[in-house]
Amino acid sequence: MKINFSNEIWYWRGPSPFHFLTVPEKESGKIKEVSKLVTYGWGVIPVVARIGKTEWTTSLIPKDGLYLVPLKDAVRSSESLAVGDSTKIELKLKI
User: Fold this and answer.
1) 0.70 exceeded by pTM
2) Which CATH number fits domain 2-92: 2.40.30.100, 1.10.260.40, 3.10.410.10, 3.20.20.370?
3) CA-CA distance, 2 to 47, in Å (whole number)?
4) 24-45 pLDDT, tens per residue?
């Protein structure tokens, strides 16, 4: 299953600070429909993500009925992305 969307990069300043993209409501709904088939614990979902030419493996994190995509520093650096930038992303879920 492939999910494509665009959204703005944001930064969470918690005890483990990180950058994220929020999966929009429509796309989060599609993921939730298959979540029981792909989750490996507490609702996280393994995916292969791609922004531009950069592909990496990560896990979607459920939050307030939506999902968050963590963005590694290496991904943001290789694609020249910063907080507030809007970017297109492709997520591949193995069902």
Assistant:
1) yes
2) 2.40.30.100
3) 10
4) 999 999 999 999 999 877 889 9
